[in-house]
Design a protein that fits this description.
The protein is mostly beta strands and 114 residues long. The chain has one helix spanning 26-31, and strands spanning 4-7, 10-12, 18-24, 34-39, 46-51, 57-59, 67-72, 77-82, 91-98, 102-104, 108-112. The protein is globular, with a radius of gyration of 13 Å.
């Protein structure tokens, strides 16, 4: 069974930090890149960061220098460390991967508010 399960969202003040986790089933975790996407209210879903199976990373310009994607192969988990959160970062954050099909997690809400 292919699964992606996100956690770690919540409410944080501007300038604060959160760490999101995505636990992936073994096949999808080891086969291809895992990505974090976000969808703000009323907007299109956009790529935030991706990490390949061999650890190469790619980031959206809007989060470079603030967000860091990483993976723990022993735990089949991909993390998104989000620092210096801004008012434009709130969204539902989704984990995505491809393994004989395109799969999404259920999403986790991130809210930035004082």
């Amino acid at each position: 069974q292919v699964q992606l399960v996100e956690s770690g969202g919540g409410l944080v003040q501007p300038g604060g930090a959160l760490r999101l986790s995505c636990v992936a089933s073994r096949g999808i975790f080891r086969a291809n890149a895992i990505g974090w996407y976000r969808q703000p209210p009323g907007k299109e879903r956009e790529m935030v960061a991706r990490i390949t199976s061999d650890g190469r990373t790619d980031y959206a310009d809007s989060v470079k220098g603030r967000f860091t994607i990483s993976r723990d192969n022993a735990k089949n988990t991909v993390y998104l460390q989000m620092n210096s959160l801004k008012p434009e970062d709130p969204a539902v954050y989704y984990c995505n991967g491809f393994y004989f099909g395109n799969y999404w997690g259920q999403g986790t809400q991130v809210t930035v508010s004082s």
